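Translate structure to sequence.
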């Protein structure tokens, strides 16, 4: 498209939107108070029955499918056919994992290591395959010692297939199931759920319950700030365990894709804990090697029709740093004829108009924003600010220190920025906004909730944000996305 045409288009929108005014500040007020953390004895934290029962099962999509049961003779045969599981401490992830043919299963046993093997198969009564690379490890944090944290890979799975899997082999077993995604491709419909800053408050439980009741989400994109264990005395790591048990009811059936938030850092030199991200990295694995990343904190995956890039707001991103060099090499790899939708997840938002964390995302924006525009990222999901906000398609990349061009402008090649840090947290809603609403901000509201990004085909995706206190049918904000590569016209 010619640049004069795009200038004209910008002027037309400007006229339509009224250039100096931002969008809508919702007048909806939530009955709120500070979120209350669910106490240790809460039902959502219940430890599963049975000796050494696996808990905090992580990853994997479908509906409730099972109760514990004994191994069948056929499954015993499968186990016998293999050598006993020997923990392997170095794990390589197959190429398959980045396109949805593989999953990582994680779980914790408390009393003893038990088995790191997962039995799985496509029939509930015949789990004919067995993972071979399982391992476990533990960590200490101040005076806390973790349980045995296991993980393993299930590889070369068939697309669009329901798998059953069993953990806890040999002692108390538990069975779950998930559905693999469709093969990566151009017009593959797929729905991503979105939750940020979840925590383990009563509000967190309502958000997760509403997300589940909505039912459309096939994979959850979690934009960071998971357990908020660091807000408890001495970063009480038992709160990482309760968080794991809380979310198991969802994440054992449907994969969650993580970005690291500031509450994952757990940097506490006052109690001798100086290794950033220690509990998080021990507990939550990512398939980062597949995308040639050198850190689990930034990586990419392809899933259905989406290419998802996950960045770390709390790792170095200046020029020459590992994250910078990785991202520089990463964008050219995206093939929009294969994965039309380009999504970025990061924790600290670049376009935020609340008086919380204001401009904290600015330094990363300065480093990376021109790439986002050049490679036509469709949407950026962030959290951190405990509220909801959606931007127009804007960019702010013309500034060169002396030219004075330092305000965001409408830009059809730019992503929409969505802040969805409203999962439930522990600190309360961000209610204090900047006024007037800046002209990059399209819609903002201080309520808890979650969203759905429903990809229809290469050109269209439907997006909806829901408050957690409404019935699931109520849509509090929505937008039809037109793909920036295949259909880069203004979404009116
Ligand atoms: C850890 O230390 C804190 C503070 O001294 C104490 O309250 C807590 O009971 C200790 N926990 C364990 C597992 O020792
Ligand atoms: C959490 O939500 C679930 C499902 O809605 C409900 O059964 C459970 O009682 C809730 N627990 C707490 C502590 O709010
Ligand atoms: C992009 O993907 C399409 C569809 O898979 C393929 O035909 C094409 O060769 C790829 N382009 C590049 C540059 O790899
Ligand atoms: C926002 O307002 C500033 C100042 O009036 C203007 O320079 C800029 O182009 C506007 N940006 C958008 C996205 O409307
Ligand atoms: C809102 O934030 C502004 C800027 O930080 C501050 O000056 C003001 O006091 C805050 N208002 C309230 C009600 O907290
Ligand atoms: C893509 O999906 C949208 C929304 O469902 C539909 O209107 C459009 O016709 C579809 N485009 C193609 C090429 O199928
Ligand atoms: Fe945060």
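Result:
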């Amino acid at each position: 498209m010619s640049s004069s045409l795009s200038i004209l288009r910008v002027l037309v929108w400007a006229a339509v939107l009224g250039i100096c005014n931002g969008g809508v500040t919702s007048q909806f007020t939530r009955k709120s108070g500070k979120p209350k953390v669910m106490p240790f004895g809460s039902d959502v934290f219940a430890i599963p029955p049975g000796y050494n029962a696996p808990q905090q099962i992580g990853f994997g999509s479908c509906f409730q499918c099972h109760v514990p049961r004994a191994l069948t003779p056929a499954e015993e045969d499968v186990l016998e056919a293999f050598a006993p599981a020997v923990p392997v401490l170095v794990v390589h992830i197959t190429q398959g994992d980045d396109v949805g043919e593989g999953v990582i299963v994680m779980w914790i046993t408390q009393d003893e290591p038990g088995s790191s093997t997962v039995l799985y198969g496509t029939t509930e009564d015949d789990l004919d395959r067995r993972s071979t690379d399982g391992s476990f490890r533990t960590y200490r944090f101040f005076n806390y010692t973790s349980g045995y944290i296991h993980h393993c890979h299930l590889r070369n799975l068939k697309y669009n297939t329901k798998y059953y899997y069993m953990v806890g082999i040999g002692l108390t077993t538990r069975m779950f199931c998930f559905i693999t995604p469709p093969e990566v491709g151009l017009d593959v419909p797929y729905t991503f759920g979105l939750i940020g800053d979840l925590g383990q408050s009563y509000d967190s439980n309502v958000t997760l319950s509403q997300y589940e009741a909505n039912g459309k989400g096939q994979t959850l994109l979690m934009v960071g700030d998971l357990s908020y264990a660091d807000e408890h005395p001495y970063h009480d790591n038992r709160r990482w365990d309760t968080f794991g048990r809380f979310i198991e009811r969802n994440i054992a059936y449907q994969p969650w894709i993580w970005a690291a938030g500031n509450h994952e850092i757990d940097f506490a030199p006052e109690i001798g804990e100086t290794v950033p991200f220690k509990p998080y990295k021990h507990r939550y694995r990512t398939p980062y090697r597949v995308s040639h990343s050198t850190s689990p904190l930034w990586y990419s995956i392809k899933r259905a029709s989406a290419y998802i890039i996950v960045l770390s707001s709390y790792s170095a991103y200046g020029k020459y740093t590992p994250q910078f060099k990785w991202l520089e090499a990463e964008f050219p790899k995206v093939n929009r004829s294969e994965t039309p939708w380009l999504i970025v997840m990061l924790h600290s938002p670049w376009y935020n108009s609340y008086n919380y964390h204001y401009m904290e995302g600015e330094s990363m924006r300065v480093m990376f924003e021109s790439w986002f525009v050049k490679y036509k990222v469709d949407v950026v999901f962030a959290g951190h600010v405990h509220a909801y906000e959606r931007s127009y398609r804007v960019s702010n990349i013309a500034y060169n220190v002396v030219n004075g061009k330092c305000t965001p402008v409408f830009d059809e090649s730019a992503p929409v920025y969505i802040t969805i840090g409203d999962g439930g947290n522990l600190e309360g809603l961000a209610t204090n906004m900047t006024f007037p609403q800046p002209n990059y901000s399209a819609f903002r509201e201080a309520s808890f909730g979650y969203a759905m990004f429903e990809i229809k085909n290469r050109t269209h995706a439907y997006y909806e944000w829901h408050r957690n206190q409404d019935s699931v049918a109520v849509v509090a904000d929505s937008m039809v996305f037109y793909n920036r590569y295949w259909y880069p016209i203004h979404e009116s």
